Amino acid sequence: MHGTPCSIGALLDRLQGDELAALNTMLGTPDAPGWPASEIFKVLTDEGFTVGYQQINKHRGRKCRCARAAA
Asked: Which domain of life is it from (predicted)?
């Protein structure tokens, strides 16, 4: 990967176990839509994580630095 991942990608790289599984569930997949971005943002910031609100949908839509770096 070139550069740093977005705030969501960085968090996915950092989390493990149940926390990682929970975030992946919240983000969803094309077949199983996840939580609204506003709810994900609230949960993550309430837990003390620093993420960008708009970054949630950018990451989901593969329009963030993570997707560009993987291309």
From this structure: Bacteria
Per residue in 8-59, pLDDT (tens digit) is 999 999 999 999 999 999 999 888 889 999 999 999 999 999 999 999 999 9
Q: 64 burial class (0-12, 13-18, 19+ CB within 10 angstroms)? A: buried
Residue 68 in this model has a pLDDT that exceeds 90: no
What is the DSSP track for 20-70? HHHHHHHHB-SSSB---HHHHHHHHHHTT----HHHHHHHHTT-SHHHHHH
The tokens for 4 are: 């740093």
User: How many structural domains is the chain composed of?
Assistant: 1
Residue 51 confidence (pLDDT): 94
User: Structural domain of residue 36, as residue ranges?
Assistant: 7-70
